[in-house]
Amino acid sequence: MEGKSKYFGKDLITTQEWTKEELIETLELAEEMQQKRFSPEFTGILAYKSFLMFFYNSSVRTRQSFEIAATELGGHALFLEPSSMRLKTKDTAGETTEDAAGVMNRYGVGLGIRILEDKIAEYGQGDDLLREYAKYADIPIISMAHDRFHPCQGLADIMGYRKHLGKDLKGKTITHLWGHGALARSHCSVQESMLISSRMGMNVRVAHPKGYELDDEVLEWTKKNCAENGTSFELSNDPAETYDDADVVYSRNWMSTEAYSGGELHKQDEIEKALKYTDWICDEEKMKRSNNGLFSHPMPVDRSHEVTDEVASGDRSIILDIAENRLHVQKAVMALTMGE
Amino acid sequence: MEGKSKYFGKDLITTQEWTKEELIETLELAEEMQQKRFSPEFTGILAYKSFLMFFYNSSVRTRQSFEIAATELGGHALFLEPSSMRLKTKDTAGETTEDAAGVMNRYGVGLGIRILEDKIAEYGQGDDLLREYAKYADIPIISMAHDRFHPCQGLADIMGYRKHLGKDLKGKTITHLWGHGALARSHCSVQESMLISSRMGMNVRVAHPKGYELDDEVLEWTKKNCAENGTSFELSNDPAETYDDADVVYSRNWMSTEAYSGGELHKQDEIEKALKYTDWICDEEKMKRSNNGLFSHPMPVDRSHEVTDEVASGDRSIILDIAENRLHVQKAVMALTMGE
Amino acid sequence: MEGKSKYFGKDLITTQEWTKEELIETLELAEEMQQKRFSPEFTGILAYKSFLMFFYNSSVRTRQSFEIAATELGGHALFLEPSSMRLKTKDTAGETTEDAAGVMNRYGVGLGIRILEDKIAEYGQGDDLLREYAKYADIPIISMAHDRFHPCQGLADIMGYRKHLGKDLKGKTITHLWGHGALARSHCSVQESMLISSRMGMNVRVAHPKGYELDDEVLEWTKKNCAENGTSFELSNDPAETYDDADVVYSRNWMSTEAYSGGELHKQDEIEKALKYTDWICDEEKMKRSNNGLFSHPMPVDRSHEVTDEVASGDRSIILDIAENRLHVQKAVMALTMGE
Question: Which residues of C251-285 are buried (b: 16+ CB within 10 A; e: fewer)?
Fold first, then answer.
């Protein structure tokens, strides 16, 4: 870890914008960091440096894993909640993104941003905000989950599959299933998983009820990734058939295409609608159709809706490993993009 | 401080669950840490490690003393407010304690929890929550004050008495007096004090108006502790008589047995009721009946209700020493249970 | 940096209360710290020590710059929001300043306080609160901006002028202009600027519409400072004439003398009134009257009200340098007053 890496200053908004080689290098560093967690090789990388975290949305895992990642690299993460800040919005006076980013360039070594569907008026505005910061900031902008993407979750997922299925994921099959539930969740985790698993050479399947279609561009990119790897991409509206022979089963709720209307998110309507699809739960019976598949989920899990306790706490569930991986991949990303 | 201690991973929910020898060892380490506050012997103990703090209730002293304790051991404490987290409650979807604890095992070296009467529907539920976390967490669960107990306050109290009365407290007398006031305070501090002072061989007295009875089990344990030490335990409803010949006078408000009804805490009613008992204040006149007694209080003090300014700021008041001790005992507890 | 400096334990409530020699020494240390930002000479100064920050008002810049300053000196800053604390106010039970300060003396190495006009009932109460803490605290009290003063901003401003105009500011001219706008801002930044620029030997001008008069005592002190340096002090109600031959143009909104009535701040009325003075904006045309003047502002900037984009983002704008300087001067102040 001597000198600035070629990654220095690089933004991470989605893994789709990094090369496959960069993603593999990041995963390998994360794996090394897991094995030698508090080694002096790593604990000085961000010594006395500060990483700024903007939480437009609160979070259990993301706050802990980023704040601890900075600590374990010898640095410090600042927990900032922009709701209590005087940043300009379209209706209020305040500081522009240009000015805010201009100062942060002088203070910190990186800026993480988390902004999900309930803090924006329309799908895509969170992604726009990150790209506006990226335009004015020299320091790297790291998505800590936003409406479209969740790159650190995607890396953590793959790190889990590499551990349990072997480092070459080529030809393995992952199926993503919509789960019914009471949380009206973001599209970001599942969309990132589709992108990065297809980049890694996996066959990718997606199943959801009608009305829960995902981002068109993400679908196009995933198809393109599969085409480049000679693997298959399949879409389905059946809650069980895509389990067949799958190596990884990913079950997660996300909100419908009708979640927004009139520039507003109708969260309660979403929850009521989603709770009706009781067939859309990952259970032992469906898992039997898989190839002794791993159960994957970005946590927190909505047990008894997205998945049964039996599966979530079962032998093939790797959710705790994946949650732990968040820490390691984020340390790797921070070391590569912010370390000198 | 080499290798894992026999305390490694041990929970601290009440001092009653640690042996007397363990408590004495902890106090001795705290005293050493006070004398050599920033010694390299101690500043590396939690280097690059993270302690998670869950504040269901906010706090002046506890936040500062735990966050600074982690800092002085070379580590980092995360200030987390579960009200803004997606943890499951009986009425809402969210993450289970099993899942939350499972991930924290991977991220942190310990978990502190603070949950007082106004955040629960019934006395005892805070204690239940800590024990549920303890069931699923491998890392130590440390009470940062909860409805029943406040072990770090109890240790800080005793550290103060050891300084001012000598290390052998055997046969010394402490009296706990209810104080009138406008804060409807938790039972945790006074109950912990009764338990740990009786363990240390002190004669224990408790006085309060009728209707302010304390936890039955705590009373039983205190009597048992006194019996084992051959010391006396006395209960009274008189605001003055238990001062007689006391070496330590502890005056503090706590809420009544009627504070809860219908699964709800009636804080305003409590305050109105408590303010009527104007005799229940620790003042110079009553202090004259004591054996030149020390004035003890866990702070923050409700001056002119629980105690007069004259006593609280007087020569025999050791409240600032005790507040300072919180830092040292918490460093000792963290070093013993989380250090490697 | 060996041994305690003569500054050890010194409060910083306004630069007017430090000698000119002390201010110059602080600026020189800040300049050295900027050049050698992460040098081991500085990163151990507050090792394992804690700086307490009380944010009665939230802030973008001040939080980041103080928290990062502590980090870069090897220490830790605690972000505390007293609204969620049990401190005594005139109407509620709670802890007294005496008790709160007494404990903080034992825990931390310094206490920063931010309290602006909207958190007090009358102009001057913020300053009173800092002085009450200073009375009971042995550790230094550092203003992080309060109703009357903002010493760290004043030091950052001067550090910027020293960089761009040379270290000897004697005889240079600074003009402070009220800016119209929608934020009803505090008097603290402009008042501190008047005080410190006059101390440094600059000619000082102030222009504002009638009704926006500043603190009488600050005006008297500024005149006295100018008299001692043989420089000029001018007041005006014209939005353009004070630009003539100025070396520095400082444009910033502040609230009127009628902002308070009946012990209440009428923020909305202030904003409506201020927005009518559309002549009071710093633009290219007015800047042409200056001596190729620098544009100065404490940020965040209310663009298109206080100043045009053209000026704020122009070649002569040094606002980002000044914002960066906040970090360096605060590190210098903390090192001098809290380092051992």
Answer: bbbbbbeebbeeeebbeeebbebbeebeebbbeee
Pick the CATH number of C15-149+323-338 from 3.30.70.360, 3.40.50.1370, 3.20.20.80, 3.30.450.40: 3.40.50.1370
Q: How far does B40 lie from chain A, in Å, by closest CA? A: 17
pLDDT beyond 60 at C84: no
Helices C188-199 and C151-165 cross at an angle (nearest 10°) of 50
pLDDT at B194 over 50: yes
DSSP E strands: which ranges in chain A?
A: 50-55, 76-80, 110-115, 141-146, 173-178, 203-207, 233-236, 248-252, 260-261, 264-265, 294-296
- A15-149+325-338: which CATH architecture? 3-Layer(aba) Sandwich (3.40)
pLDDT value for C3: 59
The ranges assigned to domains in chain B are 15-149+323-338, 154-322
Query: B125: buried, middle or exposed (CB in 10 Å: 19+, 13-18, 0-12)?
Result: middle
Which tens digits make up the pLDDT trace of B272-297? 999 999 999 999 999 999 999 999 99
Q: Quick check: C86 pLDDT over 80?
A: no
Q: CB A182: neighbour CB atoms within 10 A?
A: 18
pLDDT exceeds 70 at position A87: no
Q: For residue C95, what are the β-bridge partners?
A: C87
d(CA A38, CA C315): 46
Distance CA B88, CA B95 (A): 5
Q: Do A94 and C300 touch (CB under 8 A)?
A: yes
- When pLDDT is averaged across residues B1-24 and rounded to a whole number, the result is 90
- Fill in the DSSP letter of residue B139: S
- Whether the pLDDT of residue A86 is over 50: the answer is no
pLDDT value for B14: 98
Q: Is the pLDDT of residue C287 over 90?
A: yes
Nearest to A300 among B92, B94, B104 (CB): B94
CATH number of C164-318: 3.30.460.20, 3.40.50.1370, 1.25.40.10, 1.10.260.40? 3.40.50.1370
Instruction: Name which of B67, B71, B323 is nearest C106 (Cβ-Cβ).
Output: B323
Lowest mean per-residue pLDDT among A4-13, B12-21, B85-94, B312-321: B85-94
B103 at interface of A, judged by CB pairs closer than 8 A:
yes
Prediction pTM value: 0.96
Which amino acid does the sequence have at C200? Answer: M
Interface test with C, best of B60, B159, B303 (most C CBs within 10 A): B60
Tell me: cis bond preceding A300? Omega within 30 of 0 counts. Answer: yes
Cα gap A171→A122, rounded to integer Å: 37
CATH number, domain B154-322: 3.40.50.1370
**pLDDT band for position A261 (50/70/90)?**
confident
CA distance A132 to chain C (A): 17
The answer to whether residue A262 scores a pLDDT higher than 90 is no
Instruction: Say how far apart CA B45 and CA B8 lie, in whole Å.
Output: 13
A-chain residues within 8 Å CB-CB of C53? Answer: none
Q: Does the CB of C38 have a partner CB in chain B at under 8 Å? A: no
pLDDT at C87 over 50: no
Closest Cα of chain A to B105: distance in Å? 9
pLDDT score recorded for residue C1: 45
C-alpha pair distances (Å), B9 with each of A68, B26, B112: 20, 15, 13
What is the rounded end-to-end Cα distance, in angstroms, of chain C?
8
Buried b (16+ CB within 10 A) or exposed e, C151-163: bbbbbbbbbbbbb
Residue at token pair 């909100």: A255
Structure ipTM: 0.94
Reported as a pLDDT band with limits 50, 70 and 90, residue B82 is confident
Fold of A157-322: Rossmann fold (3.40.50)
